[in-house]
Design brief:
The protein is α/β, with parallel strands linked by helices. The protein is about 35% helix and about 20% strand. The chain contains 11 helices and 16 strands.
Length: about 350
């Protein structure tokens, strides 16, 4: 059963894993202290066996709240965060990548959301890398908090209670990639909620520590395979075709299936919604432009990325007849199951 301790004095400690990239790290620390100083207690920097230049830069930083620990062996993102959090006793922990730049004090609305929802374990600030999302078109609960089923580890405020309950990041993911998504899946499975606040406040330069070479791609593939082996339902990609309508117009069975699909960490793309329709979670996307070309790309997704393949197609009638014909033809060629509902009759059939 989910229980939570009250946020009494609400101190926040910052945990920042660092591996090389000294200039980006210096920028991150400076921007963090400039904007977040009044809201935080201590900053724990975990240097993950960086090069000499980075170590010397860290030792030269002059901020009273800063505590730097140099590891002798490179452990990776997850283990570094786990170790640093053990040094903190704050009920709330802000985990911040060293390639993040803080642009404003985003912490007060995040803390307010955690206070408003005892089941909310973790919340991230909006802004980059959520610039591709129109956060205003999603339902919010608590106010300003958009539901997400996928944790991104670049910047998030988490309850210590929830982090310790699950044992922190799983060290099986090594140096990094997908340990954050895995933690999010486990939080969801333990009845905790996750959110992204509509208010931004950061800029994130991805891949600063790992680079973009062959070893990075191999690490990414290895950990992606590990993640999906543990959470196979998260690999599902469901595509919905309908006429312009609201979710309330869907049959109850279809709405329940959407909720269940999202809750398992999968993705839903909805073709046919109007711009005014509100969506329940970030893993549900609205496709409103280039509808034919979107459907025609299905076979390409099947060839290039197995984890991006369309696993099911749901048609909620009435839907445009030409798109129904096209999507059924491609579904037949790619052997994608198709489910069909009728709004009027509330009936369901599997093609």
């Amino acid at each position: 059963m989910l229980t939570t301790r009250p946020l009494d004095t609400k101190p926040i400690d910052v945990v920042m894993p660092v591996y090389n990239a000294p200039e980006l790290t210096r920028r991150c620390v400076a921007s963090m202290m400039a904007f977040l100083d009044e809201s935080i207690n201590r900053v724990y920097i975990q240097d993950d066996a960086s090069d000499t230049k980075t170590r010397e830069m860290l030792d030269g930083l002059d901020y009273p709240k800063l505590h730097v620990h140099h590891a002798n062996v490179n452990q990776g993102f997850g283990r570094s965060v786990n170790e640093a959090i053990k040094r903190s006793d704050a009920p709330l922990i802000l985990v911040l990548n060293s390639d993040v730049e803080v642009l404003e004090n985003f912490l007060p609305p995040l803390v307010a959301a955690l206070e408003a929802d005892p089941a909310l374990a973790v919340i991230s600030p909006g802004g980059q890398p959520y610039e591709n999302f129109d956060l205003d078109r999603y339902f919010t609960n608590p106010p300003g908090c958009v539901r997400t089923y996928r944790l991104r580890g670049h910047a998030f405020l988490i309850r210590r209670q929830a982090f310790e309950e699950l044992g922190g990041f799983d060290s099986a993911f090594g140096r990094g990639y997908y340990e954050d998504v895995d933690l999010g899946r486990r939080l969801d499975e333990h009845a905790w909620r996750m959110g992204v606040h509509q208010k931004g406040g950061i800029s994130h330069k991805e891949g600063a520590s790992f680079g973009r070479g062959f070893s990075q791609r191999m690490l990414l593939k290895r950990n992606r395979d590990l993640y999906y082996s543990r959470h196979p339902n998260a690999k599902r990609n469901v595509f919905i075709l309908s006429d312009r309508c609201d979710l309330d117009d869907f049959p109850a069975e279809a709405r329940d299936l959407i909720d269940d699909t999202l809750d398992r960490g999968a993705r839903v793309d909805w073709l046919g919604t109007g711009p005014e329709v509100r969506l329940p979670a970030l893993q549900m996307r609205a496709v409103e432009k280039n509808l034919v070309s979107t459907i025609l790309r299905f076979p390409l997704r099947h060839v290039l990325r197995r984890d991006k393949q369309i696993s099911e197609i749901w048609i909620v009638n009435p839907a445009p007849w030409h798109l129904r014909l096209l999507i059924r033809a491609i579904a037949t060629c790619c052997m994608i199951p198709v489910r069909t509902w009728s709004n009027a009759a509330r009936t369901h059939e599997i093609a």
